[in-house]
Specification:
By secondary structure, this protein is of the alpha/beta class. It contains 15 helices and 13 strands. α7 runs parallel beside α9. It binds ligand NCW.
């Protein structure tokens, strides 16, 4: 059985959340609307019309939530800042919003829990969306100003920062498939958004170097193992293409200052110009990559699909998201990232949505324990294979608003009863508590 003591001494274990998914208090203390408030309040966009108005009410219950983290014995906590809470119009400061994050950070530090902050986990101020959102090149400078303000405000106490969470989702789910806010369906827009997200990232890293001399900054991407879904040679080719589009696209420019050739070709085809000066900003050196790993994705060559490929279902056991459980992919991708980019890594998210049932005050999520244990093993294997992996954040601390799926998917190691806002440690949390002592 894997033990905590098998990991390096300074390896950290934590949990992760995101502001819109847990905070609630959507209309309190001067918070402005984000694209997700508007999207989730638009009929048909989220399951059952669910929204983050109340969510886990973490805005009022953060002390209780930190107490639970302490009880489990977690070393660190990754959370995101709601940009529209601190800058309701995207630009001007809302002191009450800022005060909340000061209280949150102080409470974490008092409990010896190391804060990791994500600046952008998908909740763009709606006021900036009205100015063009991620399609407006100026967005990178708005983001830089917001980041600079937060570095100044919290950088004395918070030393680990992540600029963006999963820019692939913000650009492709937000602007191409339309599953996420703002719900556009336009490939050219997705390409522009992706580029502006990376520019925003680069600007924030530059600001970080000026403001926080003794901290570390990185970018978190969703990292998917892309595999061919059949044995046709064409499917191997499309798998490698999709891999470039999901993985290399958001890593290569940041380290090498270059998009993969296939992405460059797509920008050209769509008549979009990429400036060298942009690439220089995007490639401002970072300290680590954050890895959000959940699953593999199978693709096959499909001439009938305008994209040239289709997704297919694999036959491994799946989580409630329909995502295959594939721990080996975590090992493979960690080794791949190490070899290609030579940067320290954190697993900034890993976990599963399960068919959790609260029965007699208990949630017996043995599947989640098994999932975590297997992924812990692969993380350890990667460390032993020479990957500079520094920490592991479980998604998520508690059940929360799962975007387009609303409250129907439960990823937490803590169960949330949304009627009472009562929190109940699932068996996985109890298991983790023992693991962290081992
Ligand atoms: S949807 C998504 N998530 C979930 C969300 O709760 C969290 O905020 C995100 O950081 C859990 O972790 C991330 N990510 C999109 C992953 C897409 C994977 C698609 C695979 C099938 C094609």
């Amino acid at each position: 059985m894997i033990r905590r003591s098998d990991f390096p001494k300074d390896f950290i274990f934590g949990t992760a959340t995101a502001a819109y998914q847990i905070e609630g208090a959507a209309n309190e203390d001067g918070r402005g609307p984000s694209i997700w408030d508007v999207f989730s309040h638009t009929p048909g966009k989220t399951l059952n019309g669910d929204n983050g108005d109340v969510a886990c009410d973490h805005y009022h219950r953060y002390k209780e939530d930190i107490k639970l983290m302490k009880e489990i014995g977690l070393d660190a906590y990754r959370f995101s800042i709601s940009w529209p809470r601190v800058m309701p119009d995207g630009k001007n400061i809302n002191q009450k919003g800022v005060d909340f994050y000061n209280r949150l950070v102080d409470e974490l530090l008092e409990n010896d829990i190391v804060p990791f902050i994500t600046l952008y986990h998908w909740d763009l101020p709606y006021a900036l969306y009205e100015k063009g959102g991620w399609l407006n090149p100026d967005i990178a400078l708005y983001f830089r100003a917001y980041a600079t303000f937060m570095f100044n405000e919290l950088g004395d106490r918070v030393k680990h920062w992540i600029t963006l969470n999963e820019p692939w989702c913000s650009s492709f789910l937000g602007y191409f498939t339309g599953e996420h806010a703002p719900g556009h369906k336009d490939l050219q827009e997705a390409l522009i958004a992706a580029h502006n997200l990376l520019r925003a990232h680069g600007h924030a890293v530059q600001a970080f170097r000026e403001e926080v001399k003794d901290g570390k900054v990185g970018l978190t991407n969703v990292v998917m193992k892309i595999e061919p879904g059949d044995s046709k040679p064409e499917s191997f080719l499309v798998a490698s293409l999709v891999d470039k589009f999901v993985n290399a696209w958001y890593h290569d420019p940041v380290v090498f200052g270059k998009y993969p050739e296939e992405a460059v070709a797509l920008y050209l085809e769509k008549g979009l110009q990429i400036l060298d000066s942009d690439m220089n900003i995007i490639a401002t050196p970072i300290d680590f990559f954050g890895v959000n790993y959940y699953t593999r994705t199978l693709v096959i060559f499909d001439p009938n699909n305008p994209l040239g490929f289709s997704y297919v279902q694999g036959d491994l056991p799946k989580t409630e998201m329909g995502w295959e459980i594939y721990p080996q992919g975590l090992f493979d991708m960690l080794v791949y990232l190490k070899e290609r980019y030579r940067l320290p890594l954190y697993i900034t998210e890993n976990g599963m949505a399960g068919p959790d049932k609260l029965e007699n005050g208990r949630v017996q999520d043995t599947y989640r324990i098994e999932y975590l244990e297997k992924h812990f093993e692969k993380a350890l294997e990667a460390i032993n294979a020479g990957v500079d992996l520094k920490g592991y954040f479980i998604w998520s601390l508690m059940d929360n608003f799962e975007w387009a799926y609303g409250y129907s998917k439960r990823f937490g190691i803590i169960y949330v009863d949304y009627n009472t806002q009562k929190r109940i440690l699932k068996d996985s949390a109890l298991w983790l508590k023992e693991f962290l002592k081992s």
